[in-house]
Write a structure and sequence with these properties.
The complex is a heterodimer of chains A (about 250) and B (about 230). Chain A is an alpha+beta fold and about 250 residues long. Helices cover about 35% and strands about 10% of the residues of chain A. The chains are: A alpha+beta (about 250), B mainly alpha (about 230). The structure holds protoporphyrin IX containing FE (HEM), iron/sulfur cluster and FE2/S2 (inorganic) cluster (FES). Chain B: InterPro entries: Cytochrome_b-558, SQR/QFR_C/D.
């Protein structure tokens, strides 16, 4: 395949940045999207130019490090991670527009790399549970109904990639935060910090400058892990009931 | 800050106010429509005039109508606050966006839809509420008693094709606002459940078509009546 790539280039956080066009040829349909970018970067390096910076790590769809807003969709046209997207999803001769995630809370560091540490701070604010020290507990000591375990596991699928923020017209982090609130609120182990968790994580999410939710559902439609917006409704319940009942002032 | 004001200034708290005021306005639409449909009764407007008179002089309705104005104001103020905040959350727009694939147009344009509804509300309140309250009204005799003839004011307005068009088009915008807003409000309140959400969505879809359509029917019928 021969392709034209329209890629956002930006030297650093304070640079204004702009699009630059590149041509790549002889791209195999079986390459992943990131491998295609590797080919481009090899060309650029050979020419002595600065390669295009982009985030990636596992390239197996499990770490949440890859990003990219491809032709108007986070992670490209399929509901998967960019590392699991293949060039067969594109046509020969196509022009592909590649942009970084756009959100005030995700500042662009260089080219397509954005700083997603806002997510880490949301987790730090309340995404943890108390664990007793001492002897090893027996397996299955705490009974958890299968349906509840399934819901918690579904929420725990979130890999923190930020596609939900990228997809949302408000750059809202509700889907991510609600998945993290839900996975712990649903389980017995998460009850100790339940109320302060909901309050703290929502407060941190607001402080980072993410938008509010208009319930458009774009996040759910674009999430590579299929996180459902039922989690957002659950977070709203958790938050409102925590606010009115918590004896601790958070 | 007290915990109450802190909560209500959070993104979730602001949305809660949007949802609660929105649901109140939905309820109001039903009551308002039930009253307005009396305009179509073939009694020369007598039922409507008696109804308008009762509403205007009932202390309970007075309280509700003040609340109604307050809720509209709250809904509008918070819609501006939220929309501005949301715009600021994405300072640099995408060069290419395929939003239409993953969300409905109405859900992405609640602000525009709301603004048109607001303009309509101003025209509507000026034409009827303001006239009824502060204007000099014609009177009519019903069963030997004198009533303000609000029906005559409405009939005169709906004999004007432009007025009728503004009404009908505005109801279209209301339909789109409700097509997203109705179910959205329940989601905001945290009411998302496998057993009830499908029903809420269906009722919302039906409501968003039926209520604005019936509202729009009144000026259309009265315009046709005015021709003969
Ligand atoms: C009869 C009139 C109206 C009704 C019944 C109504 C109803 C609703 C409902 C139920 C919602 C959903 C709330 C939620 O998502 O939780 C909503 C959202 C919204 N309304 Fe209205 N509304 C009306 C008038 C207006 C007006 C006059 C404006 C603005 C000038 C407005 C602006 C908005 C906006 C911007 C949203 C979305 C807020 C967001 O981003 O989440 N609405 N409305
Ligand atoms: S909710 Fe989905 S889109 Fe958002 S960070 Fe988690 S995995 Fe990514
Ligand atoms: S690189 Fe790890 S999920 Fe894509």
């Amino acid at each position: 395949m021969n392709l034209t790539l329209k890629i956002w280039r930006q030297k650093n956080n304070s640079d204004k940045g702009g699009f630059k066009e590149y041509k790549v040829s002889d791209i195999s349909k079986d390459m992943s999207f990131l491998e295609m970018l590797d080919v481009l970067n090899e060309q650029l390096t050979e020419k002595g130019e600065d390669p295009v910076h982009f985030d990636h790590d596992c390239r197996e769809g499990i770490c949440g490090m890859c990003s990219l807003y491809i032709n108007g969709n986070p992670h490209g046209p399929l509901q998967t991670t960019t590392c699991q997207l293949h060039m067969r999803s594109f046509n020969d001769g196509e022009t592909i527009t590649i942009e970084p995630w756009r959100a005030k809370a995700f500042p662009v560091m260089k080219d397509l790399v954005v700083d997603r540490s806002a997510f880490d701070r949301i987790i730090q604010a309340g995404g943890y549970v108390s664990v007793n020290t001492g002897g090893v507990p027996d397996a299955n000591e705490i009974p958890i109904p299968k349906t509840i375990a399934d819901l918690a596991m579904d929420a725990a699928q979130c890999i923190g990639c930020g596609a939900c923020v990228a997809a949302c017209k408000n750059a809202s982090a509700m889907l991510f935060t609600s998945a993290k609130v839900s996975q712990l609120a649903l389980l017995p182990q998460g009850q100790v910090e339940r109320k302060r968790r909901a309050e703290k994580m929502v407060a941190q999410m607001d402080e980072e400058g993410f938008g509010a939710c208009t319930n458009t559902g774009a996040c759910e439609a674009q999430c590579p892990k299929g996180i459902s917006i039922t989690n957002i409704a659950r977070m709203n319940r958790e938050y409102f009931s925590a606010v009115v009942s918590n004896t601790e002032l958070v | 800050m007290s915990w109450v004001s802190k909560t209500l200034s959070s993104t979730l708290g602001r949305k809660l106010l949007m949802a609660l005021t929105g649901l109140f306005l939905i309820l109001f639409l039903v009551v308002h429509l039930a009253g307005n449909l009396q305009l179509l009764l073939p009694d020369g407007g007598d039922s409507f005039n008696v109804y308008a008179h009762t509403m205007a002089n009932n202390p309970f309705i007075k309280v509700v109508s003040i609340g109604n104005f307050a809720f509209i104001l709250l809904h509008v103020i918070y819609s501006i606050v939220l929309t501005q905040h949301n715009k600021k959350s994405r300072p640099v727009a995408y060069a290419m966006s395929n939003e239409g694939k993953s969300s409905t147009w109405a859900s992405r344009n609640m602000g525009i839809l709301g603004t048109v509804i607001l303009i309509f509300l101003v025209v509507h309140l000026k034409g009827f509420w303001y006239e009824a309250k502060f204007g000099t009204l014609p009177t009519t005799m019903i069963d030997g008693e004198s009533f303000s003839d609000i029906y005559a004011i409405v009939a005169a307005a709906y004999a004007n094709i432009w007025y009728v068009l503004i009404y009908v088009v505005s109801m279209g915008f209301l339909a789109f606002h409700l097509s997203h807003g109705f179910a959205s409000a329940f989601q905001t309140l945290g009411l998302n459940h496998v057993k009830y959400s499908p029903l809420i969505q269906k009722v919302g879809a039906g409501f968003s078509i039926l209520i604005p359509a019936l509202f729009a029917l009144i000026p259309i019928v009265m315009y046709i009546q005015s021709l003969s």
